[in-house]
Design goal:
By secondary structure, the protein is of the alpha/beta class.
Length: 279
């Protein structure tokens, strides 16, 4: 079977958080209440619509893989109080609604497990969401995995949720390059296949770095998320002074060449300062 030409690479949707991607019609709660999107959510939803249109335009009907790298739902993150509902069935239902179009149109859907504080201690809520969205299960029957290994037309892709974070622009490439280099060193050490591309989420920021190899360029990618700055993010410099972006990857493989690509959309700082709470 030939692999799809495109890899749509997203993560960190955090559905259920009041500053994150949410259904267009509003976040629905058991019993019938509807929480309408606030200002920052409307901006993130507009970016999500633009991203999905870019996916349609670029793929132009060609099949694509949809990869979600975790933090699909917000969960009850360190018992914080900015969730729209702490009923996880509500969060899962709304997450499925948000992701249904992009997953329905995919040739193959895969999910990685996110941070346990969001995904559930055993990633049980991501399991639930991924199963409902048609994710391809592991041999063991799980709909999510910690690490996704994929043979993409003869090139090995290695995806996972976590990666080191930094507040310094000049250091953004360090952790992604280190992770790629470690994997390739380990592969050499033990005679394993070296990955040709790795991709990570968690840091909610887009980066692409690469190095030549005897199998073409080897790439290391991180993708933006789909969430505004939470109270936690202001504890670090990038949260206080950085530009908030949302987005995802639209990677292409053709004629033996992987071309990674990140689509990122800046969210207006005035929305970020309001945090969507004071409208
Ligand atoms: Fe996240
Ligand atoms: Fe995370």
């Amino acid at each position: 079977m030939t692999s799809p030409e495109y890899l749509i690479d997203i993560g960190d949707t955090h559905v259920g958080h009041r500053l994150a991607l949410t259904p267009e019609r509003g976040f629905h709660i058991d019993g019938g209440s509807l929480v309408l999107p606030n200002g920052i959510q409307r901006a993130i939803n507009e970016a999500w619509a633009r991203f999905q249109q870019r996916v349609r335009d670029i793929t132009d009907g060609a099949p694509y893989i949809l990869l979600h790298k975790g933090d699909a739902v917000e969960g009850v993150h360190h018992r914080n109080k900015d969730g729209l509902s702490i009923n996880m069935v509500d969060q899962a239902d709304n997450c499925v609604e948000v992701l249904s179009d992009i997953c329905r149109n995919a040739a193959e859907v895969y999910f990685c497990r996110g941070t346990p504080a969001h995904a559930g201690a055993d990633s049980e809520w991501e399991e639930h969401v991924a199963g409902r969205l048609g994710a391809i299960p592991t041999e063991g029957g799980a709909y999510t995995r910690q690490v996704w290994f994929y043979n993409w037309g003869g090139y090995l892709v290695h995806a996972a949720h976590h990666i080191g974070v930094t507040s310094v622009h000049a250091s953004k490439a360090t952790a992604p390059m280190a992770e790629l280099a470690e994997l390739r060193a380990t592969a050499g050490q033990y005679g394993l296949r070296a990955p040709d591309m790795i991709t990570r989420g968690h840091r909610h920021d887009g980066t692409i770095v690469g190095t030549p190899s005897n199998n073409g360029m080897a790439w290391s990618v991180t993708t933006p998320g789909w969430q505004g700055k939470t109270g936690f993010s202001y504890k670090v410099k990038s949260g206080r002074v950085g530009q908030l972006t949302v987005g995802g990857g639209i990677h292409h493989l053709k004629n033996g060449r992987i071309r990674p690509w990140i689509e990122a959309y800046a969210i207006a700082p005035e929305l970020e300062r309001l945090g969507g709470n004071n409208e």
